[in-house]
Amino acid sequence: MIKAAIFDMDGLLIDSERIIMQACISAAQQVGLTYSQEQYVELIGRAGPDSTRIMTAQLGGTERFNLVMQGLDAQLASLNNTFPLKPGVHALLKHYQAHDIICSVASSSATHHITQRLSQAGVSDYFHQITSGQEVERGKPNPDIYLLAVKKLGVPADACIAFEDSEMGARAAIAAGLKVVVVPDLKQPSEFVREHCHQVVNSLRDWLNCI
Predict the structure, then answer these.
(1) Hey, which of 23, 88, 93, 111 would disulfide with 75, CB 3.0 to 4.6 Å?
(2) What pLDDT shows up at residue 164?
(3) 136: helix, coil or strand?
(4) CB 139: neighbour CB atoms within 10 A?
(5) By the 8 A CB rule, do 144 and 163 touch?
(6) Please, what sign has the CA dihedral across residues 138, 80, 130, 122?
(7) Average pLDDT of each block of 10 consecutive residues along the chain (211 residues)?
(8) Would you kindly state where each structural domain of the chain is located, as residue ranges?
(9) Which has the closest alpha carbon to 139: 172, 97, 167?
């Protein structure tokens, strides 16, 4: 019996990945560099240090990375770091609240980004716990963040359902022993994830229609 639901944030609850990706591509163009969707997809679901390492290599060094990050920060600041919710989020959270299923977030993002984005999207009050990638030594696809999230909730892993959009996140939740629902965003899941997750759906609205 499911007692708790653990959600990734970016690309799953918050429709932020496409906006951030386009901002990265634009910021690179502004300093004469080329950055592609295929390159950005490699970062999705990873912890900050891993994303920094990968993107630095993609762009050809720390100096170029810093220039692109400056442009990215400026573009996101102009948006006030506000992103829309993905389809079905409110309805699913209300459903779980009505059925006494505890909800939490396990995101690779920094803690201040998690709290800010959830607050601006108007869904903070639905979540009992937040677990950030800053709280674990190893980021997704390692299971650490989900193991910590489960520990905070005080329920067995097999009584938790996890929602993920990314390959790295889905692998982390699977490795932690959770029932995993995948809602692809920018990239479809691998055969491994399809074989080991509970279900792949097009949106959280579709998942709500299944339960």
Answers:
(1) 23
(2) 98
(3) coil
(4) 21
(5) no
(6) negative
(7) 96 95 96 96 90 96 96 88 91 98 96 93 96 94 97 95 97 97 96 98 96 86
(8) 4-15+84-210, 17-78
(9) 172
User: Candidates 2.40.160.20, 3.40.50.1000, 3.40.190.10, 3.40.50.300; correct CATH number of 4-15+84-210?
Assistant: 3.40.50.1000
140-178 exposure pattern, b = at least 16 Cβ within 10 A, e = fewer: bbbbbbbbbbbebbeeebebbbbbbbbbbbbbbbbbbbb
Rounded to two decimals, the pTM is: 0.93
Helix (H, G, I), strand (E, B) or coil at 130: strand
- Per-residue model confidence (pLDDT) at position 121: 94
> What's the residue count for the chain?
211
Nearest 5°: the CA angle 14, 16, 21 is 160
Structure tokens at 46: 């990873």
